Amino acid sequence: MADSGSNNQLNPPPELQAQILNAFAASSRRVRPIGSLLDSFQNDSDVLDANFKNIHDLLCPKVGCGSLILLKGVASQREEATIDPIDSPVHPRPASLPALDSNVPTKWWYIQGSPMSFENIGFTKDVGNTGKKLLICSECDLGPLGWAQGNEYWLAVDRVAYKA
Amino acid sequence: MAGSEAPPNLKLLLIGNSSVGKSSLLMRFTDAQFLPEDESSATIGVDFRVCKMEIGGRRVKLSIWDTAGQERFRTITSSYYRGAQGIIVAYDISNRETFDALPRWFTELDTYVTPSVVKMLVGNKLDKEFSRAVSEDEGRKFAQRNGCLFLEASAKTNVGVREAFQELVEKILDTPELWAPAAPRITSTATAKPQQSMPGSIDLSANAQDNASSGCSC
């Protein structure tokens, strides 16, 4: 592997250098899956099967990331109150993620079992003393996409993308 | 679903002094093609990541733990090491102190992990070649003396990072006693989880039986 750091003075600025390196490396990498947000479906129920399971693979919603979070059929949809710590000051909601209305129940993809039920996911440290963790993309850190407690996990249906 | 058997779950730990770029190493091992933006960085800190990876046509799932800050809480140290199959010890090539601290980290490894656990020393370049304080040769020799793999990697540009993780995982897969016996050790009683040893933690030891049995998730 070529050493990028040995002739710094001749190289373009680090940002550009990183872009070039990445572009170069990208050619040998997998194609990032493209997902659709829930908004793009005619009905919210278009993402469900008869048992309320997800019929699409769930992806990180960030354009250019699209990390595979969960395989289809692993989660089931539930409506529950929006849980307090999800957009807490310890991890403010980035502008690219939709706000959750705490006055109405939120739709969640609910998963129970091992964290290894996920394909790719990141867990934050505990939020205060709540025993809850926030779920973030394991590749780009975008989040909170949901939260976790014990062996239960909730992904906000509006904060994931659906693989076509 | 692919119709293949469930991929083995492997636990990897990242250790080393703070500020050697452990977290960025962890992020860059994935094939993400961009750096994270500030807006998406968690001030709360990442506990661990689950990452699926394909090594030589073989799928594995990794849980990767960054022990940053935990070194101060000696009582929970052993639970972090428990069940780990691979350990990445990182230092910063431009910071001599982080290299000089390595013997202490390896002493800790001798205490907490079995000799068969695969270790890799990673000299993190952080793109500061011009201020190098530890030569590559020095790093390599230290790694040889301590029986571990070695790689210099740039956590910023991704160069070498993925290769480092792949090499480590391949070595683990080539060491069956590390992961094959893991399943029987795990009891299926949901109540017997070692959670009190790591307050508020998510129990990864429940993995094996969950994954092994659920090709279909009904």
Automatic annotation (TrEMBL), chain A:
GO terms for biological process: post-Golgi vesicle-mediated transport; protein transport; small GTPase-mediated signal transduction. The keyword DNA-binding does not apply. Keywords: Guanine-nucleotide releasing factor, Protein transport, Transport. It holds the Pfam family Mss4. The keyword Plastid does not apply. One of its GO terms (cellular component) is membrane. Signal peptide: none annotated. GO terms for molecular function: guanyl-nucleotide exchange factor activity; zinc ion binding. This is Mss4-like protein. Gene3D superfamilies: Metal Binding Protein, Guanine Nucleotide Exchange Factor, Chain A (2.170.150.10). It comes from the Eukaryota.
From TrEMBL, chain B:
Pfam families: Ras. The keyword Lipoprotein applies. Keywords: GTP-binding, Lipoprotein, Nucleotide-binding. InterPro entries: P-loop_NTPase, Rab, Small_GTP-bd, Small_GTPase. This is Probable Ras-related protein Rab-18. It comes from Serendipita indica (strain DSM 11827). Residues 188-218 are annotated as: Disordered. The keyword Metal-binding does not apply. One of its GO terms (molecular function) is GTPase activity.
